[in-house]
Amino acid sequence: MMAFILVMSLHGLQSMITELLPEFSIGGLGLSIGPFWFVAMSVVLLFRSFWACLAIPVGGIVFGEILIGDFSALGAVEGLIVVTLSWFFVMSLITDPKDVKQIAALGFLAKAMEETAAWFIDVGKFYIGVEELEAISWLPETVWATEGIGALLQIIIAGVVFGAIPTLFLYPRLRGKIEPLLGMSPVEGRDGPMFTRTSLKRLIAWVALIPVAFAFETLSETSGGLITFTPEFVETYGQAFLFVPIAIAAVISFGLVAYRQRKVDGLQD
Amino acid sequence: MKYVDALTDISVADIKVDLMRTAYDNEDALLNSFDPRVVLLWTVLFMIIPWLFYDTLPLAILLAAAFALAALSQVSKYLLALLLFGQVTNVGFFVVLVPLIGGTVRAVGHLGENAGRVVAGVMAGDASVFAETGSIVAAAVGRGIHTATTSQEVGIDAVGALVPFFLKLTIISVISLAVFSAMSPQKLSKGMLRLGVPRQLTFAIAYGYRMMPLLVEEYHALINSFRLRSKVPEKQGLFRWRYFYYLLTLSVKAFYPLIFNVAKRARVTVEAMETKGFSRSLGDERSQALRTEGMMVRTRDVTFVFGSLLFVAAVWVFT
Hints:
The complex is a heterodimer.
Chain A: H1 2-20, E1 24-26, E2 29-31, H2 37-47, H3 50-67, H4 75-91, H5 100-129, H6 139-174, H7 178-181, H8 197-226, H9 232-237, H10 243-268
Helix pairs in contact in A: 1-2, 1-3, 2-5, 2-6, 3-4, 4-5, 4-8, 5-6, 5-8
Chain B: H1 2-8, H2 12-24, H3 36-48, H4 56-72, H5 77-124, H6 129-182, H7 185-194, H8 199-229, H9 241-253, H10 255-275, H11 278-281, H12 285-291, H13 299-318
Helix pairs in contact in B: 3-6, 3-7, 4-6, 5-6, 7-8, 8-10
Subcellular location (chain B): Membrane
Membrane topology (chain B): Multi-pass membrane protein
Keywords (chain B): Membrane, Transmembrane, Transmembrane helix
């Protein structure tokens, strides 16, 4: 729980700050400063618990979306699933927590996994959302390419420049100092191979849950596009008839609520 | 030039004030006076409704209504500008980038089609193959440029087709901006709790609201103290890149002390929460009932929901 609050606050602050920084836009490809992934990288990999992983997306959602007011309800679920599982998987690969290079490389791997998943999800969304655009023959490849370049840029900027490189300096300075502040002892390394049974299980979970994340993301962005709204009564009675069900529902629920409110207010008096 | 000045004069302090206002100053906001459950469900409903329209005119009317709502909810203008800018660049993406990359893809495709022939020629030791290679490359480049320029029109057509799409996205974002900046944190977390969102998450929201000003203040103070103790680079370099690099490294370094401070604060918070029995009350029905006491759907909530629905129906019928 402590690690959860810690990571959430830090990552949230980071995402809020970088959200507000201006973006350099080169021909539509956003080249933003940050996000400062090194914060999450060095702190999460220090604590290595599921809660710390979960705190990354939650922090981003709370600070970067709800507080600012730009909250995409269902779309947030995608990040929640993909980010948490990517980091949870990578965490199981750590064998020697004293080896900074390994930590930085694994942090980079987590970011790369997450961006790749996001890439597939975005392209898939395009296929579902904008069907009429498939009329242009080269468009699908173009979307693959542009989204891919975007993902690659993100991996380089967020994963290396603001991820692995600062982690190399930050991680050794934090290890052994921050755990006592929370009343814990530093995590020890383990012997044996890097890729264990636990890692395999988590990797399978990652692969299995990407479609779920995809479903949520598509639902949030194109939900109504899938519903075609042509009730029969509109055709038979004309469009003005649309008011009737709404008006009836309004009258009924208004009456019900007014009755209940009366009752409660009467009790209070 | 005045507009440009207004844009470049935005300081960190301005943004901070704006942010605080968005998060806290919402006592009089219209949406804050309704029952939070109703507002949340209403938001979900209105995230679907724009998708039922396909023409530009009704969508534009809905967008205007959304902006009116945003004005009533005292949405931060800075954020609104940021959002609109994002949408506009999205449209720009289709005009500029799609033809460009489409052209490249075509050119590479052409090269690939003809690569076989060239390889065969080289194998045979034919000298004329080099001239042929040149012509193939030239043809590929020509084809790429041709695609890029002609598909400019296609791109613009695509923008025409995409305008309703982006209008829909903008409506949804403006509405969610209005809702989430208008609702106060207590109301928001109460409403979510009642709708079945886990306590940990609603706690995170409440905690975020509490901590945000402190964290921003602390981070700003740290950056300022780093600036006091360090030296600005003397040469600014091309596009002042040295200066920006300096600022960037500062903002990265300032996270180091911040991490320790937040760690201490997190420990105090958790200990205080456990003293008051947080973990024990997590699954308890009575605790939840106590927390969400006094919430009731009132007639004005119903009026609000159905009033807005009737407005949408009117837009649907009369346009």
